[in-house]
Structure formats: C-alpha cells, structure tokens
Amino acid sequence: MKRKILTCIFLFVVILPSSLFAARRFAGYEKGSYKISIRIPFELPVAYWVKGNETTGLNNWYVWNQIGYNNNIEFGIEIGYEYFMNSKLSLGGLIGYHFSYMRSNSLISRVPFAFRMSYYPYTDNKFDIPIILGVGGAYENTKGYSMVTMHLSLETGFSWYWNDNWGIGLRTGLHLIPEFLSGRPDQTNLTFFIPIVAEVTFRR
C-alpha cells in the first residue's frame, strides 16, 4: 500500500505538463492564479483523548510521550493545489501519505485528503502569509485494520519566493484526527497534532 501511494504521487509530479512551469512575470494574485506545492510534514502528536468507560477510572487524556509513537513524530509527503478566486482567497485541495511507528514497531499508515480554503492577509512579490482551513478525511491502516477518519486542519506560516514563480515556505498550526469506531463507542478518540511543514511551491 505504501509503495503504491508513493509511486502514484511520484508519477503525478513527473507527468505534470511542462507548460505549467512556463515562467511569467508575477504581478500579484488574481482570479485564475494558482499554486502547486510539494510538502514535507513532520507531525508531532501532542495530545490524545479517548472517551473510555467512566466506570473503569482510566485516564481519558494522554500527552506527548504517553501516546505511544516511536520518537513522538509522524512523517509524510503531500501535494497541494490552490486556485485563486480573487487576490486574497483561494480554494483547493491536498492529498498525501503519512506514516509512523508505535513503540511496538507496528506501522501506522495514513492517507489524508482535504478540501482547503486559504486567506492571504499579506502578499507581495517575495512573501506570502496565509491562513488555511482544511476539512477532509484520512484513510488509516494499522495491524491489518483499516478505517476512514475525519481530518481537520488549521495552518499558517510564510513563503519566500526567490523568483516570480518558485518559492519555499514553512507552515504550522493544528491538525485534528477524530475516530468514531462503530460498535465501540468507548474507544471514540481524538488525536491532536502540531505540524511542522516544509514546502516548495510553484505559482502562476
């Protein structure tokens, strides 16, 4: 599964029409402008809440190294696209592949996909500062068990462009992964991640 997803992402990047990358003088975002980004996220699992059974007296909240992630980090790769509705607002989407290991060495694979709305309170020829809201889902697999969960995100950060079209950026914020397990309401849970994301962006 992991190999197939990575292969698809690679092919998507390779076969993008070369005409997309034809340079033009950047004069600010306007309706019809777009951005394509390749992102490398490092997700830090900072808190975990599980509904549990109140009669057991078990702790409902777990933080940082209590959650059970090996090295307390989740790795990934993502591709994002934005289409500008006007000079400040864009709509788009994101898909990626995340993975991490539990301390038991069990692999957790996650495929997030989200609809994203971005607002740009500040832009110029060299810098962007966006506020990004994402709503979507994630396909998750671990120990042969798979499910689809929600994936909610709020991000901000900045991008710096070394020419009119190409730039690099950093993002951070909050990602929420709620899980509602059918037939097991006592295991309903919510994981809080703080992302640290490096990205390369092409804009036109």
Question: How do the helices and strands line up, and which of them pair or pack?
Answer:
Layout lengths: L1 H13 L19 E17 L10 E3 L10 E11 L4 E13 L5 E17 L3 E16 L2 E17 L4 E14 L9 E15 L1
Antiparallel strand pairs: 1-2, 1-3, 1-9, 3-4, 4-5, 5-6, 6-7, 7-8, 8-9
How would you explain this protein's 3D organization?
With 204 residues, the protein is mainly beta. It has 1 helix and 9 strands; from the N terminus they run H-E-E-E-E-E-E-E-E-E. It has one helix at residues 2-14, and strands spanning 34-50, 61-63, 74-84, 89-101, 107-123, 127-142, 145-161, 166-179, 189-203. An 8-stranded antiparallel barrel has the order 1-3-4-5-6-7-8-9. The radius of gyration is 19 Å and the shape is elongated. Residues 14-22 have low confidence and may be disordered.
**Unreliable runs:** 14-22
Which overall shape is indicated by the principal axes computed on the Cα atoms? elongated
- The helix content, as a percent range, equals under 10%
Order of helices and strands: HEEEEEEEEE
How many beta-strand elements? Answer: 9
Structural class: mainly beta
Gyration radius from CA atoms, angstroms: 19 Å
Major β-sheet strand ordering? 1-3-4-5-6-7-8-9
End-to-end Cα distance? 33 Å
Estimate what percentage of residues fall within beta strands: over 45%
Largest sheet, if any? 8 strands, antiparallel, barrel
- The count of helical stretches stands at 1
Mean pLDDT: 84
